[in-house]
Amino acid sequence: MEEFVNLEQFEEKAREVLPTMVYDYFASGSDTETTLRWNRESFQRYMLRPRILKSVEQVDTSIDVFGTRVGSPVLIAPSAMQKMAHPIGEIGMVKAASTQGNALILSTMATTSLEDVADHSRTVLLFQLYVLKDRNYVRRMVQRAECAGYKGVVVTVDAPVLGNRERDKINRFTLPGGLRLEHLVEFSPEEGSMPTNQSGSALVTLFQESLDQTLTWNFIEELRTMTSLPIIVKGVLTGDDAEEALAAGVDAIIVSNHGGRQLDYAPAALDVLPEIASAVQGRVPIWVDGGIRRGTDVLKCIALGASAVLLGRPVLYGLAVGGQAGVERVLELLHEEIKTGMALLGARSIAEISEAHIRRHQF
Q1: What is the C-alpha separation between 209 and 212, in angstroms, rounded?
Q2: pTM
Q3: Eight-class DSSP state of 134
Q4: Integer Rg of the chain from CA
Q5: Residues 131 and 211: beta-carbon distance below 8 Å
Q6: Known catalytic residues?
């Protein structure tokens, strides 16, 4: 994997090795894919302001995740159906995360059970929850996660319906044969497979049949009766919703537009991060995702108020190209860039990175 020197190269190679249906599922956005593009473009709008002569011989990239120290401010985002990328799937992902010191969030839509992932983990795990109509199922899932040693529940709140993902419709996306959604086995009559949809994406049909579209902030209180784990909401894009989340008693907020896969023309997460940081005022951790490809991208997020970031597509591309070793190389490259960037920025720890280190370009 030493031939890869940046994360963009992994995407180029993954496009070559993955079937079109699978690559498009991982890479695409909704409608015109404008928000998808904005996620990357947003980083070009900000410049970093280095401070010099700061004695940066020792640079500490570690952060706290609910009481446990991890070596990197980069968490693995909850990405569905990882065995589509490589047969080792989520097991390879968690082994790589463990080796490189990254926390990991496991998706409800995983092709490996949360217990199997936990058995192979030596890092902090959190469980991402899609709230299904069957609340008994929801209760069982979060309690399984708690029993398996997961440290938090990440509730995805920006997907009452699935975004209009045209590439999935064109490809008639469905889960490839031999794979199943392990957390839906007990819930789905198809035992974890996807319902047939001859006119478009089977994933849309699955969401329409399963997800609870009546969800409100009251669910956070309901979830508290199911688990003692910290509750994180993923999909906040306004200061107003950040205030609602705090009022509901969440333990952390993830600023996210779902990788540009839900509402097209929603803002880039980086652009709304200052608004949300201003609303939160340090009361809970803020994590952010969307478009991160460089260590300097991570530093910009932290300077604008995030305490950690989530990485999604690049680790999937690493998995597709090289299995566990590919993911390890992706994380290693990003970690090297973060350390180099921190030293050049004059920051010896993540806590030392602040808004004084960043400015928005005046075009």
Answers
A1: 9
A2: 0.95
A3: -
A4: 19
A5: yes
A6: 258
